[in-house]
Amino acid sequence: MSPVFPMLTVLSMFYYMCLRRRARTATRGEMNSRRAIESNTRALPINVEIVQYAKEVLDFSSHYGSENSMSYTMWNLAGIPNVYPSSGDFTQTAVFRTYGTWWDRCPSARLPFKRTPSTFCSQDYVELAFEEPVYPTAVHILETYHPGAVVRILACSANPYSQNPPAEVRWEILWSEAPTKVNGPQARQFTPCIKQINFPTNLIRLEVNSSLLDYYTELDAVVLHGVKERPVLSLKTSMIDMNDIDEDEDEEKYGCGMDTLNKQFSIVTLREWPTNGYFDKLPYELIQLILSHLTVPDLCRLAQTCKLLYQHCCDPLQYIHLSLQPYWARINDTSLEYLQSRCTLIQWLNLSWTGNRGAISVSGFSRFLNVCGSELVRLELSCGHFLNETCLEVITEMCPNLQELNLSSCDKIPPQAFNHIAKVGSLKRLILYRTKVEQTALLSILNFCSELQHLSLGSCVMIEDYDLIASMMGAKCKKLRSLDLWRCKNITESGIAELASGCQLLEELDLGWCPTLQSSTGCFTNLARKLPNLQKLFLTANRSVCDTDIEELAANCTRLRQLDILGTRMVSPASLRKLLESCKDLSLLDVSFCSQIDNRVVLELNANFPNVFIKKSFTQ
Questions:
Q1: Which residues of 235-358 form beta strands (DSSP E)?
Q2: How confident is the model at residue 236 (pLDDT cuts 50, 70, 90)?
Q3: pLDDT tens digits for 258-313?
Q4: What is the pLDDT of residue 10?
Q5: Listed range (170-179, 246-255, 475-484, 598-607) with the worst mean pLDDT
Q6: Which one of 294, 369, 477, 508 has the minimum C-beta count within 10 Å?
Q7: Which residues belong to any copy of the F-box domain (predicted)?
Q8: Cβ pair 566, 514 in contact under 8 A
Q9: 564 with 539: CB under 8 angstroms?
């Protein structure tokens, strides 16, 4: 046979790979970005494009606003734009709870999970429903202040308005990119080039990472463009870009979720190799150390290579700390079942964002904890909407050593279920942000969990008397180091006095948007005098904060690192100078909307105290 034919075969295969890569429309870029080498691919047949705004906000992980209001809440993403194309800080937009890295540099900061894939950097999310399922052709995100937080856009196969739930729920990544720094806070329309998918969708999910931002990002609306009929790409291309053949093919090969991983978990037949290479020569502990740097999918792939590495990859010591949050889209009961034998020694488990829309059942979760819960010290369940009272009961029974429990935004748990948490007397950290915990259950928790060091009660709207809660904290929780009372509606100077007297180890206190606290009662000066270890104090939107309060902080809280006094009208530049001169470790000072602190003062303070990030927000 002529040697020409093998060469033609190779060239044909190469050309096919190029066309296949070109057919995938997933690329990265911003509004109006284009590939360096464009194709003239066109959709056949031509469909009328449907343009629609989000009809409803279905789910989200956090927001800056109140549960009983529309200001700064995720619900503002539904419907037509309220603000765009204007730039600035507007209450009619959607704002997430955090920005920057300040939350990673305070006493309540949690240690990160190792083995998190470098491609997963999402911190928050919001899910939006649209009227008509379409094959997406474009997604426009209207950002009105400090843009650049969106890092991933996903589409779901499930129709939230369908009466018949699908047998399988699929999520596809339309676009993803690492966090980027955007110059300037001005509004923009963000339109990344998205991947074509093979199913219609009317459920879009945005995931954000605000770590590089100088302030809260604000989103106004999301526009979905799409067609009713699935586009068929023609194969006419003008030129092939060699850069198109890259590592993104691995994403297609392995998928973005756990379908392939589930199969790999269950593999019992291994390839027969004559030897295990030189791994036989290495100490067991050294191999374990090497494998500890692999992600969970990589461990599963490596387990298929030989029996020796299979044994190492299935060793429970590799799963002492396990985060399944990066794979939330594909984690289900089957995944947990496959992992059971490997997680008998697990101490840290992150199931945040997983299990929704029926992916994890109560029985599946219970079976997993029955086998793997005895050694658990830390359990992250943020936004776990499958959780109910039975799940909390199982946690308290099967996890006797539990010290950290995160139920942030688990707003489907019924109020009476939280009583079970009081059985875990070893708890040191409890996060109940945006839950329906009631006063009776919380009092019981505080009474029996006297080891608590970190407690988050932000946006817990069903607590009737925060003064009583604060009094119980002061009496029982002497070791408390951080306390989040964000948007607590009814705490007064009486509760603050009890708290300051009993919890003198407090290093972090968030009293943002607590309207019942008034400086004239002396509550803030009392805090400053009783809590000398304070490193973070948020008094956001309390207009009564005055020079006396700032001077007391300067005199007594010299370890202060972060201070938020957004919105006060009674703080002068002179008192801020005293604070900055006294608190040498201060790194964040938010004076947005402080009427006496204009831009000229901020520039002066920045020049004299360059190590402090002084934030002054604006509205146009």
A1: 321-323, 348-350
A2: very low
A3: 455 666 566 544 555 556 667 788 999 999 999 999 999 999 899 988 889 999 99
A4: 41
A5: 246-255
A6: 294
A7: 276-331
A8: no
A9: yes
| Amino acid residing at 281 | K
Integer angstrom CA distances of residue 553 from 413, 487, 500, 610:
39, 22, 14, 20
How do 348-350 and 378-380 pair as beta strands? parallel
Ordered by start, the domain boundaries in the chain are 49-227, 319-463, 480-619
What superfamily does domain 480-619 belong to in CATH? Ribonuclease Inhibitor (3.80.10.10)
**CATH for 49-227 (3.40.830.10, 1.20.1560.10, 2.60.120.260, 3.40.50.300):** 2.60.120.260
Read off the pLDDT of each residue in 469-482 and give the average, rounded to a whole number: 98
On whether the CB atoms of residues 491 and 468 are closer than 8 A, the answer is no
The residues pairing with 136 across neighbouring beta strands, listed in sequence order, are 226
Antiparallel, parallel or unpaired: β 454-456 and 429-431: parallel
Chain centre distance of CA 51: 29
Cα–Cα–Cα angle for 179, 454, 513, nearest 5°?
70
Q: What region, left, alpha or beta, does residue 100 occupy, with left being phi > 0 and alpha being psi -120 to 50 degrees?
A: left
Strand partners, 2: none
Q: Which two tokens stand for residue 400?
A: 């006797």
Beta bridge partner(s), residue 508: 482, 536
DSSP annotation of 111 reads: P
In the block, tokens 């003062």 appear at: 601
Q: Do domains 319-463 and 480-619 have the same CATH topology?
A: yes
* Res 574 pLDDT > 50: yes
Beta bridge partner(s), residue 322: 349
Q: How many CB atoms lie within 10 A of CB 260?
A: 16
Q: How far apart are CA 489 and CA 491, in angstroms?
A: 6
**Residue 280, pLDDT score:** 81
Question: Is the distance from CB of 124 to CB of 62 less than 8 angstroms?
Answer: yes
Task: Report the candidate in 503, 425, 449, 441 with the shortest Cα–Cα distance to residue 471.
Answer: 503
Minimum mean pLDDT among 38-52, 107-121, 192-206, 399-413: which range? 38-52
- Share above pLDDT 90 across residues of the chain, in percent, rounded to a whole number: 80
Q: What is the pTM of this model?
A: 0.88
- The C-alpha atoms of residue 284 and residue 338 are separated, in whole angstroms, by 24
319-463 placed in CATH 3.40.50.300 = no
